[in-house]
Amino acid sequence: MFVASFGVVSPNTQISICHGFISRSLCSKFNARKHRSFCSLASDLNYLCLGGTIPAISSNHKVYDVVLKQSALVNEKLKSSGDLDVKLGTLSLLNEAYERCGEVCAHYSQTFYLGTLLTTPERRRAFWAINMWCRRTDELVDGPNASHITLMTLDRWESRLEDLFEGRPYDMFDAALSDTVANFPVHIQPFKDMIEGMRMDLKKWRYKNFDELYLYCYYVAGTVGLLSVPIMGIAPESQATTESVYNAALVLGLANQLTNILRDVGEDARRKRIYLPQDELAQAGLSDEDIFAGKVTDKWRNFMKSQIKRARMFFDEAEKGVTELSSASRWPVWASLLLYRQILDEIEANDYDNFTKRAYVSNAKKLIALPVAYARSVISPSRTSTLVKA
């Protein structure tokens, strides 16, 4: 599907296996540099990894179509108005809805909320509305009533999503999102794909390989990246293709989700869920029983080192797209990226004990990261960017 260099790989491309990456020419439509290194472990998606021995049978079109749909909306908006700046609804009840979304965001997603405070009021409220919908969707399968949730429940939730996109919200939170999608060029497909990820969560608690896990990560987090770009906006001076910026956002979402998975191993294990590639666990001499036992051994440390390395590689690739965003959005995105990436550092600081310890970034480290993020945010898009158009 989409690879971490923000290019699209032809489904018919032949792959040669090598350590770390695989060399291939990418689709010229995205003007990706040729002979970049990639690899794929199996059947569904292409992604950064640490090596593989199984040829890929690509299904690029799944995410490819979503990115094109979303970027087409942005391009249409830019052609009609020349910018993406909007004024969201100002009715008192709508204001209350947005404020309530912000309160929930501040309570449950503190790092993300901090990032939203660094952007404009319009973008901030839009992010809160989207975050609220994502949280409600996640709560369907992970909340206190999860045992009563069925596939039919998710089907009804998807119908409700379609209604709010048509301007028929069911409640105040729906109204906030309905107002957001009416003003920003956000496509419905990433929302639908996130619901598909929830369907997967109801049926699947193990992942045979990283390919399967990658697809899950796209559904539940890569989609968030795609939803965010229309809100953040692309810098007018950017020479990158719209599609390539979306691919960068997709990779950042994947990096965040991989970090979540590594942080929450113990918590997930207590729910009898393992979001780690089964084949890689076996290669490391580990089993499900080792996860449930929750003991930090040398085998576990070595396994975690490889998983953290892969997550960092995704963050490295995602960084290349942040500079292409609008100036008002670069600071919060850099802040969120740097803070989330530090969670990996904290896992290491805990001696890889993610069974009994939850890695988190202290408030002091968050404050230190803000000026670093700001310094990076003032760098404008360059014609020498790796995402530059032909």
From TrEMBL:
SUPFAM superfamilies: Terpenoid synthases. GO terms for cellular component: plastid. It comes from the Eukaryota. It is an enzyme of class 2 (transferase). Its EC number is 2.5.1.32. One of its GO terms (molecular function) is 15-cis-phytoene synthase activity. One of its GO terms (biological process) is carotenoid biosynthetic process. Keywords: Carotenoid biosynthesis, Isoprene biosynthesis, Transferase. It catalyses: 2 (2E,6E,10E)-geranylgeranyl diphosphate = 15-cis-phytoene + 2 diphosphate. Signal peptide: none annotated. InterPro entries: Isoprenoid_synthase_dom_sf, Squ/phyt_synthse, Squalene/phytoene_synthase_CS, Trans_IPPS_bact-type, Trans_IPPS_HH. Pfam families: SQS_PSY. Belongs to the phytoene/squalene synthase family. This is 15-cis-phytoene synthase. The lineage of its organism: Eukaryota, Viridiplantae, Streptophyta, Embryophyta, Tracheophyta.
